[in-house]
Design brief:
Elements: H1 2-23, E1 28-34, H2 39-54, E2 64-70, H3 77-86, E3 88-89, H4 95-107, H5 145-157, E4 166-170, H6 198-206, E5 210-213, E6 228-229, H7 239-248, E7 251-254, H8 261-266, E8 271-276, E9 290-293, E10 295-298, E11 303-304, H9 307-312, H10 321-326, E12 329-332, H11 336-351, H12 358-370, E13 390-391, H13 393-398
Parallel strand pairs: 1-2, 2-3, 4-5, 4-7, 5-6, 7-8, 8-9, 9-13
Antiparallel strand pairs: 10-11, 10-12
Helix pairs in contact: 1-4, 6-11
Length: 404
């Protein structure tokens, strides 16, 4: 069946390429698939493409047209609808032509390298904002008036207080990927327990915030507080509200995974990221963000590694559970107290009551000195631009030895 489909589509792909090549001296036509199967990439990579485009990064030096096609299944239909207002997404029926045209270009790229000019390619470094563009570029996604009314009706129907500031809670656990075929155990080091966030959620709720737990295929959040909504598991969840809530929230609390991308990237919401791992991939590029990484315990000595030891022992870029096992290191989650401290720091920063002590400034500067900002991925691409995020102030006060 696949061979028959390829044979049918081949002449259309060939005609398309001939047209593209005939126009290339006057007008560059480029295309690329959107990573539309995973929310983080669909939101984050696409938003970063738009930011780079606005700043003249990764664009031709002559008139051009960029076209995109979706990879099925699409993870969020509302996001697809909104991206179609900002970028050119071809109809589903045309996608096979672009897919096979891409294969033909890649096949001939060594003998005819200029063919690759017609592939948009990755951002400067995939989903890493190494030019700190998010803090200095306007957002690209907006809701229509009709959609806003739909979102407000949902809030009213579900008894969300009209003037409550909404905090979104996004905790990665092992429930989501367990719904997909394949072995995802190598990702276990990133998983977290939602139970460690309950006390923080309840403290926020007691202060009048409405805490909404986001996600898809997640573990249940055990709290009966009326201002805590387990939207991820109680049957409320839908594609539209996933994006609408991201657009109106006050800030987000996350463990550094794809669900945060619509709020943090597309709508520029402040975020608290805890338990992020590996440490070398901390999301450092926005001044709105506060960070914590997991504790690294050297098992043979039963002690926590310092920040410099994490990197000197080759653990800063560990991207699999096996890497930590091989190095005899156990990664432990931040405690409920540590999570609460950094979330309250965000609350105070946003309401203007936060005051940095001299000690805080000195500790942040020490963190910047110890953290290796010149880290690169396996292809040699830098992972960090200007480091603008702050590491949790209370954690650094309570653990000054971690920076030794």
């Amino acid at each position: 069946m696949k061979i028959v489909k390829d044979i049918v589509i081949f002449p259309f792909s060939l005609l398309f390429l001939l047209l593209v090549f005939a126009l290339r001296y006057f007008y560059i036509i480029r295309w690329q698939p959107l990573i539309s199967t995973r929310l983080g990439h669909f939101a984050g990579n696409t938003e970063l493409y738009c930011c780079e485009r606005d700043h003249g990064i990764n664009v031709p030096n002559k008139p051009y047209l960029d076209l995109f096609y979706l990879i099925l299944p699409v993870c969020n239909q509302q996001l697809a609808k909104m991206w179609a207002r900002e970028i050119n997404i071809v109809p589903k029926i045309a996608s096979p032509i672009f897919i096979r045209s891409t294969r033909m270009i890649i096949f001939f790229k060594n003998s005819l390298p200029f063919f690759c000019d017609h592939l948009i390619g990755d951002n400067a470094n995939s989903d890493r904002d190494i030019y700190n563009l998010l803090d200095r570029t306007k957002q690209h996604l907006f809701f229509t008036k009709k959609e806003k009314n739909k979102g407000e009706k949902w809030l009213n129907d579900n008894n969300v207080p009209k003037n409550a500031s909404i905090v979104l809670l996004m905790v990665r656990d092992n429930a989501y990927l367990s719904n997909f075929q394949g072995d995802f155990d190598y990702h276990n080091y990133r998983d977290c327990s939602i139970d460690n966030f309950v006390s923080t959620a309840e403290k926020l709720a007691n202060k009048g915030f409405c805490v909404i737990r986001m996600g898809h295929h997640t573990s249940k959040l055990n709290s009966k507080h009326p201002l805590i909504i387990d939207y991820a598991t109680n049957g409320m969840r839908n594609d539209f509200m996933d994006i609408y809530l991201a657009s109106i929230c006050y800030f987000i609390v996350s463990t550094g995974h794809g669900a945060e991308a619509p709020a943090a990237w597309c709508f520029r919401k402040p975020r608290v990221i805890v338990n992020q791992c590996p440490t070398g991939r901390l999301q450092t590029y926005s001044c709105k963000d506060l960070l914590l990484t997991k504790h690294h315990i050297l098992q043979k000595e039963s002690r926590r590694l310092t920040l410099s030891e994490i990197f000197s022992n080759g653990l800063g870029m560990c991207d699999s559970s096996q890497c930590y096992i091989d190095n005899e290191v156990e990664v432990l989650e931040n405690t409920p107290e540590e999570i609460c401290d950094i979330v309250m720091e965000m609350v105070e920063r946003l309401d203007g009551s936060w005051k940095s002590e001299v000690e805080d400034i000195e500790l942040q500067n020490k963190f910047l000195k110890v953290f290796p900002s010149n880290l690169a991925d396996k292809n040699g691409n830098l992972l960090h631009g200007e480091i603008k995020a702050h590491f949790g102030a209370r954690f650094l006060r309570d653990n000054p030895d971690w920076l030794e």
